[in-house]
């Protein structure tokens, strides 16, 4: 067992982990941050994306023991109290989720995209999401939500 | 009335609040005091004789609490088939047993034959590695036609054949159909494969069993689309537990698409293990296990024939299908190639004669069952592909040949030659909308533009019809269903006027928590924010059949209406009492009860409070309380239908297909929440496009699933798909349910594969490649090979 200390969503945490403990297992198992999900075992689906030191990382591909001193942000750390992060708000406004399972990873990836590329084209959004799989939405409304969150004009969500 | 209570508007989803903030509660998120972890030993051969399973070493591994093998479950019941199908000769289908854990034989790669329970998930998995199993690999049977040859190895020795049934629909049509074909002016024949798919809900299956020795009862948290069905299967068939001793809770569930309808052996195992250990036992499927054990979809091999006049008027359809059921009968697998497929073989068309033959085959592969669309995509695919080929052979425009044969609005109710009565529809109207929205009149200009960039552009059209709102119990029962297919709702008006609605349907992405309150609010004239939907917990909800087959709104939503109407009737009695009037005199509008011709009125909230403080009630006439339950059994299926157009660009150098435009014109009847409906269509389209272009569960000739991970099985990604143009403005309201709704969940997955294949064939023809058909998925290598002989 190894001791690690890191900042998770602004709070200092310490934990004893096995060498093989993945960051996602630390988050879900020991820290009870179950918003980060595990959808595969080959690092393809992206449901587990979190931010480590400001970069999007698949938390199923990094050992917890490697992250001593790191700053980690998960979906639980995105809203400011009751104030949703603009990407969270856009996912709701544009119906960018259905079952909700891929959603935390999608939002964390989208946040990383917009940090590097504040006004992405539709093609750039689609290209960036290559590592995040959604089975419900056909990505249509996810792409719209991310475009809208970046401040770009997006057609209304539904014909009423 | 608040604006967002109105039917046909799009209040944003209230369930989103928890999902976008990481506060969803899926089965694997639940962490119970003292819980232990299960892991399964699974066959790595497609067929094998279990000679011995030595668990001695595994039992001594660190943290191990118990080890189970198939022998431990020999005496409990099996997982049953929910639908009895009869063969053409009148004999019942073959029903091999499906045990909790395999014993005697393993029958597909991934078939579980032992399980370990340990203190941690890692310890359980480590101990599984220490199980010493002597399994003698035997020759598997994989190809369906080989499986039916004399002397083929048997998947189940006990049934002495690999043929589950040989079904004719309708058998009395057979002779006449053959006669029409003998004299037909034109016959189009197409042989095709409907490729095997893996549903791939993003949340892997998970189950936690909790036995309470103090009360001798069980709770199962599980990833289910229909917790009451799961409870019934476990109690009545597999474990022999009284239903009142088992609560099944399906909390937030991360997608289903059919794969979470069924009861799986892991659910029984965690319950049995929890009783043995006196501690909760939890199990979460890895994605690799999901690929091997979640029920797969499709896998049909079909020969379809159309007999018609030279002008394209259809005279008869004839089909012969081999349907792969896999190694065991998953709960509803036998109904998919039959009553969800053969009954739809008339499509949207006025064809006088249809005969369907289906041979269902057992093979050493993962069981196959309903996956989004379930039988109806297979029917639509073969029909709409074959019609396209027919049009090309006869030199008729693909839209015109469809219009020529469409059932017309004046023909409804229309009885098809395959046993369904369509209540309503307007297929020309959908086609009109499609032609406009897809801007088909300018297609040739777009084709020229693509050609100027060296690309071949193709346009594909498909119509579809599906039978949803499954189903009238009496019809289903007469056809072999062993369950009823109603649904249920309880509306409980609480004393201070807020409302709880307990529903049998389960929401795992469909937005019931938002859409169902719209229905109740509209009927009661109250604020939808005061209405909460309760679902997914058998101890809280009435017995309902759950969510599949695009049925939640049409069937459960109708039960919600019915229960709400009972509330109004009861509340009128109370209101009458409060206003010294008679119940039949009371009007109810916009949430206010009134006595016509007077200024007497009471608001709904006052009536609710009165119901629970009945100090002056005439108790022989009015019971206290305001709570009503309704069960709704539909009079017929509902029949969503529509027309789809797909435009593709094919790169002639590589064979790569790009979907550049996709338009869908659907008739779903009335729409409650357009935003949710459109989202459902988007998702269905993506799954259909995935099937047509990239998805394929490939087995090698030893029965290993080659496409067994996201490294190997291609899931559609954001950059594989275009923005979709969806339209549901063509409305023929369902004639037999109170909302006039039809269902929208599966349409996209049904109509899109033939539209896409038709588009690719069209593109290739435009480049001079006279290709008749390409099987799905249309990978670059397949398309390139088709172009280059």
3D architecture notes:
The complex is a heterodimer of chains A (160) and B (789). The model of chain A has no long low-confidence stretch (mean pLDDT 96). Chain A has helices at residues 23-30, 86-93, 103-116, 122-128, 140-149; strands at 2-8, 11-17, 49-52, 55-58, 71-73. Chain A has a five-stranded mixed sheet, sandwiched between helices. Chain A is 29% helix and 16% strand. Chain B has 789 residues and is α+β, with helices and mostly antiparallel strands. Chain B folds into three domains: 3-22 and 486-632, 2-Layer Sandwich (Aldehyde Oxidoreductase, domain 4); 31-138 and 202-255 and 260-293, Alpha-Beta Complex (Aldehyde Oxidoreductase, domain 3); 300-471 and 636-787, Aldehyde oxidase/xanthine dehydrogenase, molybdopterin binding domain (Aldehyde Oxidoreductase, domain 4), CATH 3.30.365.10. In chain B, 27% of the residues lie in helices and 22% in strands. Chain B is built from 19 helices and 28 strands. In chain B, the strands form seven sheets. Chain B has a seven-stranded mixed sheet with strand order 3-5-1-12-9-10-11, sandwiched between helices. In chain B, strands 7-15-14-13-8 form a five-stranded mixed sheet, with helices on both faces. In chain B, a hairpin with a 5-residue loop joins strand 13 (300-308) and strand 14 (314-326). The termini of chain B are far apart.
Give the overall silhouette of chain A: elongated
CATH class placement of the largest domain in chain A: Alpha Beta
The CATH topology label of the largest domain in chain A is Ubiquitin-like (UB roll)
Please state roughly what percent of the residues of chain A sit in beta strands, choosing from under 5%, 5-15%, 15-25%, 25-35%, 35-45% or over 45%. Answer: 15-25%
- Main sheet makeup of chain B: 7 strands, mixed
- Most extensive interface: A-B, 61 and 67 residues
**CATH hierarchy: architecture of the largest domain in chain B:** 2-Layer Sandwich
Distance between the termini of chain A: 57 Å
Work out the number of β strands of chain A.
5
Looking across the biggest beta sheet of chain A, what order are the strands in?
2-1-5-3-4
Average pLDDT of chain A works out at 96
- Taking pLDDT < 50 over at least 5 consecutive residues as the criterion, the unreliable ranges of chain A are none
